Amino acid sequence: MLGNQASLALVIPEAILGATVAGVMALGVSRAARSRGVVAASGSLGLLAAMAVAAWQAAGAHGSVAAFHGNVVVDAMVSLFRLVFFGTGLLTLWFAYASSEIDTRDFADMTALVCASVMGMSFMAAASDLLMMVLAMEFVGLLSYVLAGLKREDQRSSEAALKYVIYGAGASGVALFGMSFLYGMAGDTSIQAVREVLLGGAGEGTRQGAGFAPLGLLAVVMVLAGLGYKVAAVPFHMWCPDVYQGAPTPITAFFSVAPKAAGFALMMRFLSLLLAGVSSRLLSDGLMVLIGVVSIASMTLGNLAALNQRSVKRLLAYSSIAHAGYLLMGVATLPALMSATPDPSGFRAVYFYLVVYLFMNLGAFFVTSHVVTRLGSDDLGAFRALGQRSPLVAGVMAVFLISLAGLPPTAGFVGKFYLFWVVLKQGGAFYYVLAFIGVLNSFLSLFYYARILKVMYLEPSADTRPVAAGPLAVAVLMALGVPTLLFGVWFSPLLSAAGKVLG
Questions:
Q1: Per-residue model confidence (pLDDT) at position 210
Q2: Mean pLDDT score of the chain, rounded to an integer?
Q3: Is the separation of the CB atoms in 130 and 179 below 8 Å?
Q4: What is the pLDDT of residues 110-151, one digit of tens each?
Q5: Which DSSP category does 150 fall into?
Q6: pLDDT score recorded for residue 352
Q7: Which of 119, 148, 398, 494 suits a disulfide with 247, CB 3.0-4.6 Å?
Q8: Which one, of 65, 35, 53, lies nearest residue 119 by Cα?
Q9: What is the pLDDT of residue 375?
Q10: Which of 378, 390, 395 is nearest to 101 (CA)?
Q11: Which of 181, 369, 179 is nearest to 266 (CA)?
């Protein structure tokens, strides 16, 4: 266990982001240097430098290191999730630079908030102490509330920020209440100390841990409820459609991937540290059923609600809820993690799918942002005849939608196949039903994704304005579209990286 000074070398990427935030804030108060180009370049350089260091650390990661007196764990999983967070932040800056929804006066503030939020997400993925979990969650949450309300003159943006704050406060309160139970059981905020109690050891001032199974289950469920809000899982999803629709589209794209990935990273870290090797049928079976039911509800409600949406941003918000349900299928393989020989393959499938989801979902939102910037609307009608008005943009959007639906030869198909295979590998009627419902929901999602394709290619439009993409837009589309296709046929590098998660 490393002390504070010895741990500093392990958080160099976060230190780079901290310096980037300070630099961007300085640019924001300088009239001569606050242009969008200068701020975007500065933020991009900081994120690229942080990504480079994170990639170098991921390549050389061996085992895990308890840093800052055990408050965080730095391992391959943290380094790999950093790449997801930093990459999403970088692409968000490029989206915002090309978008008309972010006022130039607010661009420096937006850049600083995104970089700081990404830094907090890294600590969410690394947290191994209950207090660190709370601090990281609230740090990211507070910044997200401000980002959602960035369009101060827009009533829907202000409403989105308010709803985000109200739901976030409630979810944080529930999670904190659950953590207070865990602290009471162990007399310590360390997740490892709580685990010792669950294994049957004695915590400070406590009885033997075997008697805490029902209370332990309640406490873990309350913490997972708070994390369920972060990933927009049913029934903690109510904020998601309104926030996604009200926030500027580049920020909506950021919300759809980065906080969701951070929520799943923290969920996997918390469960793996707390429950690995704990032989409690009440905990394992209870959590398996609960997470499975939430997964089914999220998939089904998200897909059904998306069917009749006219706003593409709102449609993609419900799609995001459905994808949270797919990802929770991997988390529901918890009994395999709690066995005598822990098997984290379900969590690895979650990471694999999150990386795939990054490319296809950000891509769909970038096209939506591009259409909003050019035509001023995210209504389905704005996408009419997009195949004729901008063949490249429509073609890449088709790739993203096909991947989101989980069809070959895209990365979305491989990601869903891996998830379903891991679930089926667990055996038992519950997992067979869970996988079957997941497949049915994938078919259901085809209807609303195909609806966008129909509008783009088969419906005429009275509006003949071109929706041509500039050099930056083309570069971003290729950066997202090529991996979406490439990982559909050559996925071994990504599979190898996923194998390091909780390895």
A1: 44
A2: 89
A3: yes
A4: 999 999 999 999 999 999 999 999 999 999 999 999 999 988
A5: -
A6: 95
A7: 148
A8: 53
A9: 87
A10: 378
A11: 179
17's tokens: 């982001």
Q: Which two tokens stand for residue 207?
A: 């009885």
Sorted by sequence, the CB contacts under 8 Å of residue 251 that are 6+ apart come out as 92, 96, 110, 147, 148, 150
Q: 0.90 cut: is pTM over it?
A: yes
Cα separation of 274 and 279, whole Å?
Answer: 12
Please give the residue range of the domain that contains residue 431. 276-503
**Rg of the Cα atoms in the chain:** 22
Longest dimension (CA), the chain: 74
Asked if residue 428 is part of any domain, the answer here is: yes
Residue at 3 is within a domain: no
Overall number of domains in the chain: 1
Quote the CA–CA distance of 316 and 372 in Å, as a whole number.
Answer: 14
Total residues belonging to the chain: 503
Contacts of 64 (CB under 8 A, 6+ apart): 73, 74, 75
List CB contacts of 171: < 8 A, sequence separation 6 or more.
225, 226, 228, 229, 230, 236
CA-closest candidate to residue 227, choices 174, 180, 267: 267
Q: DSSP assignment of 147-213, as one string?
A: HHT--TT-HHHHHHHHHHHHHHHHHHHHHHHHHHHHHHHHSSSBHHHHHHHHHT-B-TT--BGGGGH
**In this predicted model, which residue has the larger pLDDT, 6 or 53?**
53
Position 172, amino acid: S
Task: Spell out a b/e string for 416-453, using b for 16 or more CB atoms within 10 Å of the CB, else e.
Answer: bebbbebbeebeeebbeebbebbeebbebbbebbebbb
3-state secondary structure of 341: coil
CA distance 88 to 16: 16
3-class DSSP state for residue 489? helix
The HSE-up count of residue 330 (CA atoms within 13 Å, CB side) is 26
Q: Residue 224: phi, psi to the nearest 5?
A: -65, -30
* Partners of 202 in beta bridges: 208
Weakest-pLDDT range from 234-238, 315-319, 437-441: 234-238
Retrieve residue 422's tokens: 């891991």
Q: Which of 119, 160, 309 is nearest to 249 (CA)?
A: 160
- The amino acid present at 291, given as its one-letter code, is I
Residue 155, in any domain of the structure? no
What is the DSSP secondary-structure string of 102-134?
S-HHHHHHHHHHHHHHHHHHHHHHHB-BHHHHH
Q: pLDDT (tens digit, 9 = 90+) per residue, 196-239? A: 887 765 444 444 444 456 788 899 999 999 999 999 999 999 89
Q: How far apart are CA 469 and CA 2, in angstroms?
A: 50
